[in-house]
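Hey, can you fold this one?
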Amino acid sequence: MSIKIEMLRCFRAVAEHGSLAEAAASLGRTPSAVSMMLKQFEEHVGAPLFETARKSRLTPIGQMILAVARRELEHFERTVSVIEGLSRADLGFVRVATTPSVAQSVLPPILRAYLASHPNVRIDMSDMDSRAVQAELEADRADIGLASLGAVKGLDCTPLFSDRFGVICRADHPLTRNWDELTWADLHGIDFIANGLCEQIRNPDFAPILEAARLMVRNTASLLGLVRAGVGITVLPRLVMSPEVTDLAFLPLVDADARREVWLMTQPRHVLTPAARDLAEAIAGARIAGDE
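Sure. Predicted structure:
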């Protein structure tokens, strides 16, 4: 007969309470059941664990086994607690891959609420362009992705919101004077900085502007830094510009209807941890204000 976890529990209870009756009461079992379990344990050990039938004093080997039993029971109980916490989404580790603009403008209030309700869950968030988000998901290096890709085979994909493209320039740029009449034609001859989202703009009037660009920048923070420095202008979705930014301007174009579509993508639901499922549901259920 192998040693069972219940044998250790019974032995610990009897040793700590000093009597079969009190140990049985603490375990919710009958004294005879505890006595039988303790007898089986002593038979397996091959030596008595208590000096007398009253179970009030441990033998030397009983004292040593009690120390080991306590340690192993504590380890087992911690393991059970972790497993139950993971199953309830109380514990866990969630990997998120997202585009920088979504990380800056969309996720902060969602993550604030999620972390408050899941205090023992850790999140690892990386920002990158949309193609890199897809690569992270397909390589199983991310549980949740937020990007402008559309539906991707093998992933659970949900459209979240869309926002309009517009010109980003310095607030003192000459283009800002007539922004309400701005068209693609007004961008000819102005230094243009291309970025990864430009490929989503299919308007034929934009093609020569993109082709003339001599600088491609994929990191949003670096891109906006170059615009601030007067290196050129660029085109980005509306939500890239947070309300706190006052030194740059977002100028919608009157002849452009290009929009960015942002999707929530996750590993198939049946392989997501409960913590990751909860976060994906929080993102999907958030009221994200794109633009109409």
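Strands lie at 91-98, 120-127, 144-147, 156-170, 193-194, 215-216, 234-237, 248-252, 259-266. Let me know if you want another pass with a different chain boundary.
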